[in-house]
Amino acid sequence: MNNKIRDVLKSKKSIAIAAVALLVIVPFMMEHNIILRQSKYFYLLLSFICIYTIVTSGLDILFGYTGQVSFGHAGFFCIGAYASVLMSHPEWGFGKWFGITLPPILTIFLAALIAALFGILLSIPANKLVFHFLALLTIAFNYLVLLAVSNFAELTNGYIGITRVPEINIFGFSFSTISSKYKYYYLVLFFTILFLIVKQHIVNSRIGRGFISIRDNLMAANGCGVNIRYYKTMSFAISAFYVGFAGALYAHMIGFISPDTFVQNTSVIFITMLLFGGSGNLLGPILGATIITTIQESLQPLADYRMLIYGIVILIIILFQPKGIVGLGKNISESMKRRGGEGNA
Amino acid sequence: MNMFISVLVGGLVLGCTYGMLSLGFSLIYQASGYMNFTQANLLMFGAFLAWQFYSEWKIPFIASMALAVVIMFFIGWMMERSIIRVLVAKKARNIYVVLSTIALSIIMENAAMLIWDARPHYFPPIFKDSAPVKLGTASVSKESILCIVVAICAMIALHFFLNKTKFGTSMRAAAQNKTAASCMGINVNRTIGITYGIAAALACLGGILVAPTLYVSYGLGSQFGAKSFAGAVIGGYGNIYGAIVGALIIGLLETFVSGYVSSAYKEFVVYGVLILVMIIKPSGIFNAKVYDE
Amino acid sequence: MLKVTDLTIKFGGLIAVDSVNFEINKGDIFGLIGPNGAGKTTSFNMISGTFKPTSGTIELNGQRIDGKPMYQINKLGIARTYQNINLFKSMTVLENLLVGQHSRLSSGLPSAVLRLGKQRHEEEAARKKALEILKFVSLDGKEEVQSNALPYGEQRILEIGRALASDPSLLLLDEPAAGMNPTEKNQLADLIIKIRAKGITVLLVEHDMRFVMGITDRICVLNYGKRIALGTPEEVQKNEEVITAYLGGGD
Predict the structure, then answer these.
(1) Of the candidates C71, C88, C119, which has its C-beta nearest A216's C-beta?
(2) CATH top class, domain C1-77+168-251
(3) Which of A124, A237, A343, B75 has the most CB atoms lying inside 10 A of its own CB?
(4) Total H helices, total E strands in chain A
(5) What is residue B138's three-state secondary structure?
(6) Architecture of B2-280 per CATH?
(7) What is the pLDDT of residues A144-183, one digit of tens each?
(8) What is the ipTM of this complex?
(9) Contact flag B230-A311 (C-beta cutoff 8 Å)
(10) Record: contact C113-A201, CB cut-off 8 A
């Protein structure tokens, strides 16, 4: 029995390693003309998928594991993006006020920490609320962040936004973003894998069990010694850290940020990605981010019809499979198992 | 004084419009326990329908309004029947039902953009004689007064409908206890469907009434969605009287802040107050169940 | 070890529990009984931290615990089960027992993120302990079953196992025999006696008189929120007031 479990784990691990290897090697071969040369745009798409994977995984820690809904995570995305840019930009924020800037590779982490701090702040009122009220609170939070960013124009250039965001470089090695996203993709991929591993570590620990116990049964969690408020706050903070970090990566990749990017619709897209993929596991957020980003981008040529079709696709899939894509996979494997079990009996 | 009256009337118009949506939020929550994200875009769609009938096809205003309201009632009812009910039957989690309303909302917004293009459309005046009404020394447009009057009529009608008619009673019974209600011979599914219809009709009414003071565009809904939801929550979610009070508070707050302080701060104040309410008294003015612990 | 003094709680104007006193000795199986609405579950919930008493004190080994939140009371060594089963449904049996150990484990966020050696050892030990508990409550072999897939009786047993996982000195059982068939009840009685043999004091609220009389050392009887008797099962059975409360007073 034990060996079997170990085998499954091993095979899962080997699948993961194979997937990572593909994600590393295939773009490399493409870039070097070995197979199917892709446009620069292709790496941008891959990078977007990675960034949104970090976002949805972070949201998953909050929603999928702790059971706390958020319709305002674009607020944390915004905080991460602006914090990192303001600390590293020579013309705005720190650069404008103090004449000093910090290297972007450092500020992306600081920005994530700042986002986590806001997560803790938000959790103070949020911890007490049930579903609908939490939804509203997070929506309000999103608006407040946007309003703050748009109105402190002296610091943030208001609605116009900030251009020429500095690039990330490590010890002089530049992950150049203007010419091609090829190198940046590897940087983002590295962080994505790191964040996914950390997520697995967290959810499979005492902390993660605390989160799940809150989602499953508040009363029993409390009775088992889980300090509900503390764990909800921690979940908010970790989730905000993930999303803030992703926001910072986004800002340094695109090179331009403005409040428009972080509207409440963006939050809705985040939660759509998560629900679409399936929450409370490793694969769901990855699939959700990948599929939704790909759908959105591939619908680009349809111009005005894009969002309409996007809405219809989501609606149809929910009607067909109201558990997310991962749920679909589980259903299939379960029904296969059941059939196998019947055969044995 | 002039300014006070015009700001007050502006606030009431806005509050009544929010109120039409908040009522829908509360009704649907009461009846089915779900959060309906389409509400704001139903308002937009209803306003467009009325614009189409009144401005393009030159149907008299009253007929246009009635027609739009009936069509929107039907759309709301269909939405529940063909989507929400299917998901509930499939035992989908609460959040997936919410997601389906989000998807519907996206569809509606973009369908409106494709049908009526992205430009804002001017809603022609309702009254031939467009001279404003004098209230003391202040002048107020007739459309604003119409908006307030119709909204109040709708609220009173709803009150009587819920409390004095047999159908209203069965709706309230179904909201309180579905199993018991269906044991009493009430068709719970039908009442839920009709509740969605009523919510859509109210939203449509709100859209039509606010249209003459604003332009009609596919983005009209997004101006109202979050704040009317906030109104419903401030009032005490699921309580329809609370929803109206909450919506009026938000509407008045918004216009008074932008009138007397600065319009740059109005959103700050509205969302700030909202967060404060949620910290201090999350059950709203009229208590609702919100606590987790 | 547990001393309840003048315990009182009011809901609105209604006094649900009125100046109740009792003391539980270490190593006892103590029964809290009474007709419906007597206030036994309410008292139970005050001891476990669900309700805050209006007045009166609850002391565990001399330390006041009344009004403390449930999670702290658990940490102090009181674990409980529920009248209506409250398992973590999406988790396996083993995971339920791991959450049960929450207060006794210490690794925090940094050691979880970095998966330090210390944390891995702790997890390994916790797993081992969970398996031991499963064996103790005779659910061994079911560790990978999802908890809500267990039959009803076993879910109740698992809840007791989860409570034991936190190494309590006092175990609170809220109607543990409810809904069980006679065989299951016998097994449960054996289990409770086995638990006491480990040195754990047990407080149980129960409806089934035969069950209570068979295993408890001392009993406190409540009626309309007041204590009407306290003593050994034999003493209580002879008590006039108890007899009228059970035979004549019920509604």
Answers:
(1) C88
(2) alpha beta
(3) A237
(4) 15, 2
(5) strand
(6) Orthogonal Bundle (1.10)
(7) 999 999 988 888 888 999 998 888 888 777 776 666 677 8
(8) 0.91
(9) no
(10) yes
